[in-house]
Amino acid sequence: MDINVKITVLGAGAIGSLWAVALKQQQHDVQVWTRSSNPDYSVNYQALNDNPQPFLFTANNIEHLSQSDLLLVTVKSFQVEMALAPIINHIPASCIIVIMHNGIGSQEIIKQQLPTHDTLYATTSQAALKSEGLLRHTGNGQTFIGAMQTNTPRDFSSIAELLDQALTPCKWHTDIMQPLWQKLAINCAINPLTAINQCSNGELAQAQYQSQLKQICNEVALVMTAEGYQTTAQALYKQVLMVTHATANNYSSMNRDVFYQRQTEIDYITGYLIRRAKQYDIAVPANQQLWQRIKSMESSYHA
Ligand code: PAF
């Protein structure tokens, strides 16, 4: 990879904006692709323990996109197909595509939509919140990246290095489904509970939530084991508690989605777990119940 890489970040949410700023700080040529057609995108960025600083990006520029070396897709799981559709013909064949979202399940869509592109998947535990033009980096965490579908015998680990320079730590993973499952487990535990109870991640450490968290972890561990990933309910529960502690003051993405009455990623988080569990005939009643609660909350919006 060149020193200055031409990058398009598709999706101007908290995580997309965080990576856009971090990559720009490394002197890469970054544009942001947003839902509007505005030619620029600005954000006030507040790094961990720092004061806010303004950042201005080129936005929605077809020429920039058609010359991009890297397309970082940070829209929500259920938006991937719709967000890519209008720009697909402008993505150069040589452009490496990195998909980064909570949950699992967009892989099949991507295979059909971008059959000839090199596509990588990433999962991040970096935490950020964005509201009214202020983007706050609220917690450092590990990012993993790995290949999902490659059409060229290329070494993509330089992409991991590029992301690592922007927001460390980022590591190449030879079986990206493993960290994707690991993150899915954390999201299955934290996201629905914080959304239903409208509480912060840290509040899940309270005694009242422990038996539910353990039950969720038990069920996820059974499905992960059936999928061939070595884990235990205890190990997952410990990791969940670590994340609730590390992101104690954060509101999870699903908490925010429910708060603002937006569609959640439940079908790609708990929904994905339920679909895989069905495949192995594993009962997942705690997760099933959470999925149902979130679905009925979504359907009651604007009621
Ligand atoms: O979705 C989220 O909010 C995050 O993935 C996590 C790890 C639960 C922290 O808030």
From TrEMBL:
SUPFAM superfamilies: 6-phosphogluconate dehydrogenase C-terminal domain-like, NAD(P)-binding Rossmann-fold domains. Its EC number is 1.1.1.169. Pathway: Cofactor biosynthesis; (R)-pantothenate biosynthesis; (R)-pantoate from 3-methyl-2-oxobutanoate: step 2/2. Keywords: NADP, Oxidoreductase, Pantothenate biosynthesis. Residues 7-148 form the Ketopantoate reductase N-terminal domain. It holds the Pfam family ApbA. It is an enzyme of class 1 (oxidoreductase). Signal peptide: none annotated. InterPro entries: 6-PGluconate_DH-like_C_sf, 6PGD_dom2, ApbA, Ketopantoate_reductase, KPA_reductase, KPR_N, NAD(P)-bd_dom_sf. Catalyzes the NADPH-dependent reduction of ketopantoate into pantoic acid. Belongs to the ketopantoate reductase family. This is 2-dehydropantoate 2-reductase.
